[in-house]
UniProtKB/TrEMBL annotation:
Swiss-Prot/TrEMBL keywords: Magnesium, Metal-binding, Prenyltransferase, Repeat, Transferase, Zinc
Top-level class of the enzyme under EC nomenclature: transferase
Extent of the signal sequence: none
Binding partners and assembly: Heterodimer of FNTA and PGGT1B. PGGT1B mediates interaction with substrate peptides.
PANTHER family listed in its UniProt record: GERANYLGERANYL TRANSFERASE TYPE BETA SUBUNIT (PTHR11774), GERANYLGERANYL TRANSFERASE TYPE-1 SUBUNIT BETA (PTHR11774:SF4)
Domain Prenyltransferase alpha-alpha toroid positions: 9-332
Entry's family note: Belongs to the protein prenyltransferase subunit beta family.
Superkingdom as given in the UniProt entry: Eukaryota
Protein known as: Geranylgeranyl transferase type-1 subunit beta
Needed cofactors: Mg(2+); Zn(2+)
Short name of one Pfam family: Prenyltrans
């Protein structure tokens, strides 16, 4: 429900909200135990976009960084195999297995991507990241069709993981594990009759997967592989996703998270300014909990870390005051991105 208080960003409450998730997780998130890295990412990235990364003490920062590195799967000791390398999602599943089952201890593309983004936001120098091993882990997950599986132990393969693989390759500044031509072909084949982009070819177009596809094309410098007609039609499809906030598909309710997924897609195509900022902002603020912090997907429903972060990221895209700039392709702040570029320069000087 919108009221006078909810017209303004509850900055202090949101900082406290994210800090709670970094200290203890509520029982309502127990089903997400195996993907705790993503919760850490939304919380740390949320504090970053709020300009409050210093709310994390040096001691807590070190604990989070050390915990993330404990989740890094290293090459197999017996033969040096790197196909399972990456980051796992939780210490719950970070266990030693016998040789017959060792392939189940493997990295996950989404967890690897969010772990790296979290490390960057915390100012880590990535010196403990086994870059070669992770790139080999990425390479092992690309399919013949050009998309990526999430994990080597068996999982769905779709546009979400193409995006994660592209981000990992960009962050580590190594594209040797990512076949750009195959991935580009997969993305183009996943464009629907309405020119939105789906999870896989011949499925329904979706705002989230359209973002994943566009960000991948942008990171790989392949946006020019879409014709001008395709780009114009895609721009039209995206602009039409605004109702007051944004929806992910036609005839679906609006949802806070699409203020980022669709908003960032429009930003990458240089037409976010054609949307109604005030209408979008008003909807996002309707989902804000002004008392304890957080945003929800719909008004008067429970808040969660994902929608809170993506709501803030969407507001950042339209220039809301009190928020740091978001780099739409990687979904990190400009501050974290500048830190990444300094690491790229350092790595280049060491060659």
């Amino acid at each position: 429900m919108i009221n006078e208080e909810n017209k303004e960003l509850a900055h202090r409450q949101h900082v406290k909200y994210f800090m709670r998730f970094l200290n203890i997780l509520p029982s309502s998130l127990s089903s997400h135990d195996s993907t705790r890295v993503t919760i850490a990412y939304f919380s740390v990235a949320g504090l970053d976009v709020l300009g409050s990364i210093t709310s994390i003490s040096i001691e807590l920062r070190s604990r989070i960084i050390d915990w993330l590195y404990l989740l890094q799967v290293q090459p197999r000791k017996s033969d040096g195999d790197m196909s399972t390398c990456g980051f796992q999602g939780s210490s719950t599943i970070n266990i030693e297995l016998d040789n017959a089952n060792s392939h189940y201890r493997c990295g996950h593309l989404a967890m690897t991507y969010t772990a790296l983004c979290t490390l960057l936001a915390l100012g880590d120098d990535l010196s403990r990241v086994n870059r070669k091993a992770i790139i080999n882990g990425v390479k092992a997950l690309q399919t013949e069709e050009g998309n990526f599986s999430a994990t080597l132990s068996g999982c769905e393969s779709d546009m979400r993981f193409v995006y994660c693989a592209a981000c990992i390759s960009y962050i580590l500044n190594d594209w040797s594990g990512f076949n750009v031509e195959k991935a580009t072909d997969y993305i183009i084949k996943s464009m629907g009759y309405d020119y939105g982009i789906a999870q896989c070819p011949e499925l329904e177009s979706h705002g989230g997967t359209t973002y994943c596809a566009l960000a991948t094309l942008s990171l790989t410098n392949r946006l020019d592989q879409l014709s001008e007609y395709q780009l114009d039609s895609l721009r039209r499809w995206l602009v039409f996703r605004q109702v007051d906030g944004f929806q992910g598909r036609p005839n679906k309710p609006v949802d806070t998270c699409y203020s980022f997924w669709v908003g960032a897609s429009l930003k990458m195509l240089d037409i976010l300014h054609l949307t109604n900022y005030n209408s979008n902002k008003r909807y996002v603020y309707e989902t804000q909990d002004y008392v304890v912090g957080g945003f929800s997907k719909w008004p008067d429903t429970c808040t969660d870390p994902m929608h809170t972060y993506l709501g803030l990221a969407g507001l950042s895209l339209i220039g809301e005051s009190g928020l740091l700039e978001i780099v739409p392709t990687l979904n990190i702040t400009r501050r974290a991105y500048d830190h990444l570029k300094s690491l790229h320069q350092k790595w280049a000087s060491e060659l």
